[in-house]
Amino acid sequence: QCSVLCPEGYTVQGSFTCFKGEMVGLSFCAEDGSPVSIEQVTKVAGSVEVDMMIPTELSQGESRALENMFAESVAAALDIGTEYVGSIRVHEDLVGGGGRRLATEQKTYGVLYEVTVPSNTSAADVLQKAEEIS
Predict the structure, then answer these.
(1) Structural contact between residues 56 and 33, judged by C-beta atoms closer than 8 angstroms
(2) Coil/strand/helix, residue 69
(3) In terms of Cα–Cα distance, which of 78, 87, 75, 85 is closest to 22?
(4) What is the pLDDT of residues 82-134, one digit of tens each?
């Protein structure tokens, strides 16, 4: 795990790590004596690949809807509320590129997610469910 380096008069809060080329977690400097409220939580990060037939071009609104759909799906698969899905990153790879472009194409989406383990759930349970969908 890594954290930021803080100048004198500041204290490091949180940590982050690298997962599949993405930074996961959060670290920042808090001024000594500042009224910062920190809550210790456990997070789980994972990834899934999804193949879909989808329109070639998505509008910005459709892209957001797709991210929301993935967030809801991850929450359902992990049996947690969507409010615990802290981040979703969707990376698109076109399958079988080249040739004529169709109105719809098969696309593979890599979905990286980071969730906070709810206080009434064990991290082991969330991790087991995450491994089942990976």
Answers:
(1) no
(2) helix
(3) 87
(4) 999 988 988 876 544 444 555 567 788 888 899 999 999 999 999 999 999 88
Return the bridge partners of 61, or none: none
d(CA 83, CA 53): 28
Q: What whole-number distance in Å separates Cα of residue 51 and Cα of residue 107? A: 6
Residues contacting residue 116 through CB under 8 Å, at least 6 positions apart: 41, 42, 43, 84, 86
Q: What percent of the residues of the chain are helix, what percent strand, and what percent coil, each to the nearest 5?
A: 25, 45, 35
Q: What is the mean pLDDT of the chain?
A: 84
What b/e string do you get for 5-24 counting C-beta neighbours within 10 Å, with b at 16 or more? Answer: ebeeeeeeeeeeeeeeeeeb
Q: How far apart are CA 52 and CA 108, in angstroms?
A: 6
Q: Are 51 and 94 in contact (CB under 8 A)?
A: no
94 or 67, greater pLDDT: 67
